């Protein structure tokens, strides 16, 4: 019997267009994702139809399943009740089991069918004409696994929940609500991902298995993604079994509770028999008043909303996501802790509220617009003397009120959380502007649009479906069409980054105008809704149009034309500003520009050019007007042994510029690409110098589509030498991705490093137009700000209501400078005659002492171990969080507001990343600013990697080894994730590519710490000193990575020479484990520890394949106490596997192989083993 | 003030011609709209209640152009639709209060008194705090009557108002209507001839969207006097009689059909002259016999 019912369901849906539409949609979506790089979702680096991608898509489509299952399952479960045929069906002799099981299976099966679109899309993808992807042979196993592991269990799980909800409540909106709750549950599980230690929790408890999939594959590299599949074992299997069991339990609970009876029979109230005789009805004065009517309508709508169960549940979900998000993440940052500063709390609130807002807009505008027709009261209400606009407005506002209230609730919650974390700078204005001024308005815009959808739709469902589809299309289609303007993206305004430096100042004009633009547009939409407002029983468009014309009379017509005129005027302003005055460059435009630049001028890259030997800057900043003027007098010299007859100058196209070359004339000017060529007359002879004068300016006027030019801001200006005209071709502008699209051949790589490099090493990798230069700057700014340029301050004065500063470098340096200006507080101290200065905002003083401390300790260590510091000042300078990095220029280190200034390190055991980042940047004063690599692969080993090592040493001195271990765990994780996302094959450290940050930073930390453990700190530092002595401020040729690797090799004992090959010349990974560990209490109170270890080492070859290595190397073993203290550490030689003994003074808890986490191991958790404590005297 | 309807026509999207040039003049007092199901009564009433647009024609209520000045019409209108629903989760009193405010009863005390009086009148007072969605059909209909009467409408349009009411309630409602009908226009649609007979000074018969008769019931009956004959026959004979005579109705009386026949002359043996009633008028008009 149940088979009959299940088949009935399947046949029923097979005839419905809904099923096939959904299948088409999933197919289309999967097809686009796997065939086009325009899709944002495609960020993976493997083949576009690799097995990994197929499984990945199946996990990601769970949310779609949810949407589709709502339709199928809900409709199947409640059909009898909705059509009032329940009494007929229930009076047949059908068994409960057959009825429920048949319906459920049928509906679940149907809901799974559209998921097959994923496979269809992937299978079609290689054959469509627009694709340029890399495809491999069809991986049928992946399709099978995707269906069996993800599509089917997810559908069953979702179907079970929705089915249970539907048979309990017998209502459609309850299913909608339970879908929202499911999404909430997913959010909860995802928030465990941030912490390394709780990641597996998220992986196990994600009901859809997508976090599990991500967790299991998080370290998969390109080659592995192309080759491997996630199968039914381990965490995946447990996750799937867990949720299948939950699904079955839910279903059987529903089954037990189900009764063949109406849900509840409520008897009609007792009817009184007629008693009274009709008398005259009391008189009442009648005067319809707009105010009273509006208040009553609004009250009525709000009451209806408040009495809707689904609304309350969504409210609770929204609130709980918001609060949970807040509590979990308010102090998060860099796997670490930060102060819950207001802009951050607000951002979390925004993320939490968005789901609620969208649900309310989508669902409840429909409920409100259709309320009368759904309940059948429309004929009564429509015949009342209430104006159309009044009904419209009351319904719109009734939908908006709860959202506004929730913004305020969010604000209160945010402040509470801030208080709970002991933070008291509440900044209510930031809350109000972000939550009410920006978020709420954009939600209100969406609500107006949704209302219009419902007004013109013949059925509620058409609008419910059409509105999100419209929004998705509006978001997705403009980029492929290469149209990039917010004027077409409904309700969008330019992105905003609030900063404690300048508030919203740079964005204000754009925000106001775009909001006005959408406001006026929404007024027009609202007027259209009112004109087309459905009243009475008329559905024919001819009549509705006639009615609209009728309504468009008198005052209404003046309002409509007035609004249209206002919108047109605003449109004009916005169009002028964003399309004419500040034309938008789309990503594609930019890439095309760069491609043309490369095609035109790449040929000059290696033509010999004079080098800058000194520069004299005069910079006038006007923070009030966001403008500046830069004038620079440079001296250039021909350092080659041949005469130079041409000078190539590159500047930022379309920006004001002036270039004047002594003894040369302009022969070619390309204002479109920003390139000028000068002819030296007479040619510049070897050793000869001439003057080069360059000028540029910036001014920010009006507004644009994006944030716009942020070179000069009202407070916290930060720019570097790249704003001005510079000598030569610049390869960092070259297009990197999808070069075929622009007709470019594969990008020319930098040369591989080699020993005895001469001519090829004539330029350094940072700035090719100079070696070491003398610099002097005069920089002026407004009265209330301090302006900073590199070097010592040699003069300061006030004139013309402005403040002037003069700086001069104490020592020749790289031609790589930054200029800053802001209203700073300055923390000044002295370290052995060197001035240590921290420039910071008054509002963020917390970590200034820590930074000062880090600078001093860094100077201690570096001067002692590497050599003298060349300048007389060290400055750490805060800049706005429009960028989130710290950078090192000669003697100055700009440091972003968001990186360290808001860190909260008061808790115990936190990695002090503020200290670490400062130490890293100070280290660059040696590694980059004294020794800099030639422009070859591997150059950053000499700067970034050594800065990592140096800062690790300073950290170790300050915080001890426990901290290092923790730090290295994060570094290893970042390295493994980094290599997983690399689009090219990983290179060893000695030849690291410029863009492989995960190698030069994260891997380098582990590698250098490993070296330091094995050959000793002093030996490493000796090697470093050797490099410094040879290359410090030396003229070309510049060193390659071999200079360092060879110096280390010389310091490495014979039996450890394998380390150089493992760590620097190859990509080496471990798969180690402690297979068993036990401890025994001795009579003297000490413990004997015994542990069995296994060490497996492999290298990754050019194709990304693992190659197992011959066993035999030194590793460290040790034991931890319960409180995490390292009780023992020793080096042992392991050939594959071994058993080791040692004794410790305190009761040990865990035995560990490589306790300092310096070996790169993909399963670091296996390197630790809980000790079993055996009784004494065994 | 009288209501004038001129040449109203309305054709639905599915091609049904609901009104076909309807012209009527409706004076104050009770006015009955009589017609079989699907005759176009509800369409006419909805147009007069501003809820539908006619394809052509005019309608005036005194000086008000009913098709243009809808808000003015709504200010004086009381309307009971043939079918209606109720909001979920709301009580009779809450709903009536809501409607009262929207109709313009701004004074809180007056509003409360009016709502209570109406609830008393329709006998819902004891159940006034109960949810409307739990009401039985009859109670719901009474609630509908109450809301239509809110605020002393000058034009009261009630579409099949007594459906679902028991005889006692029906009488009470009619008593009230006739009382109100002394001052205002009450348009009552029904297919129960008896109701019109009892209440209305004027009426019209509508069929297939056309007005077959407009005038007073008495005049209509008068026109038929002496032309209606009745006879009791066997069931098996009915077909025969329908061919031979102009049978306008056939009713079972004690299990045997009693037929009414229209004839200007005595139709023959066994037929007895019968005083015409409105029902005879109705059927003879529909059959286009007179």
**Ends distance of chain B:** 31 Å
**Number of DSSP E strands of chain B:** 14
Nearest-integer average pLDDT of chain B? 88
Sheet bearing the most strands of chain B, described?
A: 6 strands, mixed
Describe the model:
The complex is a heterodimer of chains A (1178) and B (290). Chain A has 1178 residues and is α+β, with helices and mostly antiparallel strands. Chain A is 46% helix and 17% strand. A seven-stranded mixed beta sheet of chain A has the order 6-9-4-3-12-15-14, with no helix packed on it. A four-stranded antiparallel beta sheet of chain A has the order 7-8-5-11, with no helix packed on it. In chain A, a hairpin with a 5-residue loop joins strand 24 (1097-1100) and strand 25 (1106-1108). In chain A, helix 10 (199-205) packs across helix 13 (234-257), helix 27 (913-923) crosses helix 28 and helix 29 packs antiparallel against helix 30. Chain B is an alpha/beta fold and 290 residues long. Chain B has ten helices and 14 strands. The longest helix of chain B has 14 residues, at 108-121. Classes of the chains: A alpha+beta (1178), B alpha/beta (290). At the A-B interface, helix 14, helix 17 and helix 22 of A face helix 2, helix 3, helix 4, helix 5 and helix 6 of B.
């Amino acid at each position: 019997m149940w088979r009959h019912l299940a088949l009935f369901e399947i046949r029923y849906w097979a005839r419905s267009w809904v099923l096939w539409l959904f299948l088409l949609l999933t197919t289309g979506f999967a097809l686009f994702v796997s065939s086009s790089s325009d899709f944002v979702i495609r960020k993976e680096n493997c083949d576009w139809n690799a097995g990994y991608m197929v499984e990945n898509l199946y996990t990601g489509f769970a949310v779609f399943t949810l949407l589709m299952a709502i339709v199928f399952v809900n409709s199947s479960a409640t059909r009898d009740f909705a059509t009032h045929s329940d009494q007929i069906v229930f009076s047949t002799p059908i068994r409960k089991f057959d009825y429920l099981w048949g319906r459920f299976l049928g509906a679940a099966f149907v809901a799974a069918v559209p998921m097959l679109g994923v496979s269809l899309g992937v299978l079609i993808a290689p054959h469509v004409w627009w694709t340029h992807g890399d495809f491999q042979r069809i991986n049928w196993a992946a399709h099978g696994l995707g269906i069996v592991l993800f599509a089917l269990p997810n559908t069953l799980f979702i179907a079970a929940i929705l089915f249970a909800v539907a048979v309990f409540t017998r209502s459609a909106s309850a299913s909608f609500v339970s879908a929202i709750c499911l999404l909430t549950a997913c959010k909860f599980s995802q928030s465990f991902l941030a912490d390394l230690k709780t990641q597996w929790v998220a992986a196990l408890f994600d009901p859809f298995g997508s976090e599990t999939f991500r967790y299991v594959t998080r370290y998969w590299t390109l080659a592995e993604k192309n080759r491997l599949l996630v199968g039914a074992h381990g965490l995946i299997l447990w996750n799937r079994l867990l949720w299948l069991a939950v699904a079955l339990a839910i279903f059987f609970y529903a089954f037990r509770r189900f009764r063949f009876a109406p849900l509840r029979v409520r008897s009609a109230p007792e009817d009184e028999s007629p008693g009274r005789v009709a008398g005259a009805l009391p008189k009442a004065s009648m005067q319809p008043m707009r105010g009273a009517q509006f208040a009553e309508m609004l009250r009525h709508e709000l009451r209806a909303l408040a009495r809707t169960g689904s609304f309350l549940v969504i409210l609770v979900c929204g609130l709980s996501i918001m609060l949970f998000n807040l509590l979990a993440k308010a102090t998060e940052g860099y796997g670490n802790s930060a102060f819950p500063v207001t802009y951050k709390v607000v951002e979390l609130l925004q993320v939490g509220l968005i789901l609620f807002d969208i649900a309310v807009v989508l669902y409840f505008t429909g409920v409100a617009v259709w309320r009368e027709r759904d309940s059948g009261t429309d004929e009564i209400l429509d015949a009342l003397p209430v104006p159309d606009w009044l009904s419209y407005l009351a319904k719109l506002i009734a939908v908006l009120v709860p959202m506004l209230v929730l913004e305020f609730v969010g604000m209160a919650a945010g402040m509470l959380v801030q208080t709970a974390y002991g933070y008291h700078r509440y900044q209510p204005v930031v809350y109000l502007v972000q939550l009410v001024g920006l978020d709420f308005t954009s939600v209100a815009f969406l609500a107006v649009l949704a209302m219009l959808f419902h007004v013109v739709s013949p059925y509620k469902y058409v609008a419910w479906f059409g509105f999100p589809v419209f929004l998705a299309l509006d978001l997705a289609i403009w980029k492929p069409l290469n149209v990039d303007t917010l004027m077409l993206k409904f309700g969008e305004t330019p992105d905003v980054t609030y900063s404690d430096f300048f508030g919203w100042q740079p964005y204000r004009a754009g925000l106001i105008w775009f909001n006005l633009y959408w406001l006026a547009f929404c007024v027009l939409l609202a007027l259209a809704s009112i004109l087309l407002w459905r009243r009475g029983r008329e559905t024919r468009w001819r009549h509705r149009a006639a009615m609209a014309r009728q309504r468009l009379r008198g005052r209404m017509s003046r309002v409509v034309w007035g609004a249209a005129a206002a919108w047109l005027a605003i449109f004009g302003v916005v169009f002028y500003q964003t399309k004419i005055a500040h034309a938008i460059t789309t990503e594609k435009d930019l890439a095309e520009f760069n491609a043309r630049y490369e095609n035109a001028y790449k040929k000059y890259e290696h033509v010999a050019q004079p080098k800058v030997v000194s520069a004299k800057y005069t910079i006038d900043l006007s923070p009030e007007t966001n403008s500046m003027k830069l004038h620079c007098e440079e001296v250039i010299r021909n350092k080659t042994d041949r005469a130079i007859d041409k000078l190539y100058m590159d500047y930022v196209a379309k920006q004001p510029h002036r270039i004047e070359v002594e003894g040369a004339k302009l022969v070619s000017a390309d204002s479109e690409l920003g390139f000028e060529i000068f002819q030296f007359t007479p040619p510049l002879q070897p050793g000869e110098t001439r003057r080069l004068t360059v000028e540029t300016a910036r001014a920010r006027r009006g507004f644009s589509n994006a944030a716009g030019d942020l070179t000069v801001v009202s407070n916290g200006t930060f720019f570097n030498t790249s704003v001005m005209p510079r000598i030569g071709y610049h390869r960092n502008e070259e297009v990197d991705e999808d070069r075929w699209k622009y007709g470019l051949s594969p990008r020319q790589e930098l040369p591989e490093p080699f020993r005895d490099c001469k001519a090829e090493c004539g330029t350094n990798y940072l700035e090719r137009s100079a070696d070491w230069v003398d610099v002097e700057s005069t920089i002026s700014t407004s009265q209330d700000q301090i302006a900073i340029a590199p070097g010592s301050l040699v003069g300061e004065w006030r004139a013309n209501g402005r403040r002037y500063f003069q700086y001069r470098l104490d020592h020749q340096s790289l031609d790589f400078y930054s200029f800053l200006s802001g209203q700073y507080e300055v923390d000044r101290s002295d370290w052995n005659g060197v001035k240590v200065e921290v420039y910071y905002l008054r509002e963020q003083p917390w970590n200034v002492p820590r930074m000062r401390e880090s600078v001093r300790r860094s100077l201690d260590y570096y001067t002692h171990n590497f050599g003298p510091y060349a300048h007389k000042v060290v400055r750490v300078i805060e800049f706005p969080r429009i960028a989130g990095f710290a950078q090192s220029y000669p003697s100055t280190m700009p440091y972003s507001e968001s990186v360290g200034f808001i860190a909260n390190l008061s808790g115990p055991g936190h990695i002090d990343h503020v200290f670490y980042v400062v130490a890293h940047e100070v280290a660059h004063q040696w590694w980059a600013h004294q020794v800099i690599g030639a422009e070859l692969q591997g150059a950053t080993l000499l700067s970034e990697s050594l800065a990592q090592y140096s800062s690790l040493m300073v950290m170790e001195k300050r915080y001890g080894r426990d901290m290092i271990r923790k730090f290295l765990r994060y570094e290893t994780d970042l390295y493994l994730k980094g290599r997983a996302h690399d689009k090219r094959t990983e290179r060893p450290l000695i030849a690291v590519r410029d863009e492989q940050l995960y190698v030069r930073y994260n891997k380098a930390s582990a590698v250098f710490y490993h070296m330091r453990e094995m050959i000793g700190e002093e030996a490493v530092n000796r090697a470093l000193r050797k490099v410094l002595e040879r290359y410090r401020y030396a003229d070309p040729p510049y060193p390659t990575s071999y200079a360092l690797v060879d110096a280390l090799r010389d310091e490495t004992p014979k039996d450890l020479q394998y380390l150089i090959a493992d760590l620097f010349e190859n990509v080496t990974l471990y798969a180690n484990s402690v297979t068993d560990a036990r401890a025994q209490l001795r009579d003297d109170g000490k413990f004997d520890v015994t542990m069995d270890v296994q060490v497996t080492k492999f290298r990754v070859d050019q194709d990304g394949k693992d190659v197992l290595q011959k066993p035999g190397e030194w590793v460290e073993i040790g034991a931890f106490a319960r409180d995490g203290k390292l009780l023992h550490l020793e080096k042992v030689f392991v050939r594959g596997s071994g058993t080791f003994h040692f004794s410790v003074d305190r009761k040990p808890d865990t035995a560990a192989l490589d306790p300092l986490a310096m070996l790169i191991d993909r399963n670091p958790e296996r390197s630790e083993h809980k000790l079993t404590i055996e009784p004494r005297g065994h | 003030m009288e209501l004038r309807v001129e040449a109203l026509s309305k054709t639905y999207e599915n091609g049904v011609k609901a009104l076909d040039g309807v012209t009527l003049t409706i004076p104050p007092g009770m006015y009955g709209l009589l017609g079989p199901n699907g005759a176009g009564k509800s369409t006419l009433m909805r147009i007069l209640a501003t809820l539908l647009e006619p394809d052509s024609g005019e309608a005036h209520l005194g000086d008000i152009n009913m098709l243009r000045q809808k808000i003015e019409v709504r200010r004086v209108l009381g309307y009971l639709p043939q079918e209606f629903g109720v909001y979920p989760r709301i009580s009779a009193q809450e709903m009536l209060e809501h409607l009262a405010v929207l109709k313009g009863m701004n004074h809180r005390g007056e509003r409360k008194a009016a709502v209570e009086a109406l609830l008393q009148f329709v006998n819902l007072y004891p159940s006034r705090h109960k949810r409307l969605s739990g009401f039985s059909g009859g109670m719901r209909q009474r609630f509908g009557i109450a809301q239509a009467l809110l605020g002393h409408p000058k034009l009261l349009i009630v579409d099949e108002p007594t459906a679902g009411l028991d005889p006692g309630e029906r009488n009470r409602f009619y008593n009230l209507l006739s009382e109100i009908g002394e001052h205002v226009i009450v348009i009552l649609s029904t297919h129960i001839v008896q109701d019109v007979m009892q209440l209305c000074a004027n009426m019209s018969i509508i069929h297939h969207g056309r007005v077959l008769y407009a005038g007073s019931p008495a005049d209509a009956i008068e026109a038929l006097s002496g032309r209606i004959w009745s006879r009791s026959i066997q069931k098996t004979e009915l077909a025969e009689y329908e061919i031979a005579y102009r049978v306008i109705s056939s009713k079972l009386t004690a299990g045997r059909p009693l037929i009414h026949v229209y004839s200007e002359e005595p139709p023959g043996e066994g037929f007895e002259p019968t005083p015409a009633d409105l029902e005879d008028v109705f059927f003879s008009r529909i059959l286009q016999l007179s």
